[in-house]
Amino acid sequence: MVLVPAHLVWLLERRHPSGIIPTPHYIPGIFYALFWAASTLATQGEQMPRQWLARVIAILWMFTGVVFVAFYTAQLAATLTVQQIQCGISGPDDLQGKHVATTRGSTAAAVLRDLRAQVEEVSRIDDAYKALLDKKVDAVVFDSPVLLYYAANAGKGQVHLVGAPFRKEDYGIVFQLNNPLRKRVDNALLTLREDGTYQKLYDKWFASK
After folding, report:
1. Which contiguous run of DSSP H or E holds residue 155?
2. For 13, which of 21, 23, 71, 96 could close a Cys bridge (C-beta 3.0–4.6 Å)?
């Protein structure tokens, strides 16, 4: 793009007594013209051609520069926005070859190996969060409630969850055999479900706001 206006301005300005090209010779005259064309495209040229036809070319070139910079800026902003929205991972099928963090020895680590992800095992889930924020890994896979809580609280605005849980596992509360508390806890959990308290607690601590 720069070569065409540079050569036209050099051709028209090289013999003008007060033109922006101080020499009629191609070398080094063309370098003066190239500098003018590049600076005009990027910002605004410090000098204006003296020859009338060269000035017409300069005005057209300045208009082209404005359009070019605006178009490039819009394309760059759109690309960056799409990259933020579409991080390249939308589900388990996208984890192959990706660096994914989880806790050492967890069921998530075994699942990730089955998915052929590059597993980064850490001692604590907080270390996995830090690796994600430091861009050392592409994703974190772990228990859904734990990730939901982090995304809705400490990680709010910094991370987001994608896809649905891809392996169902149950949580349990362990009691000794014949412990009388087991029935009381079961009844309490059932009551929380039926009266809506469970949903309120879930929305408070896990739902993204």
Report:
1. none
2. 21
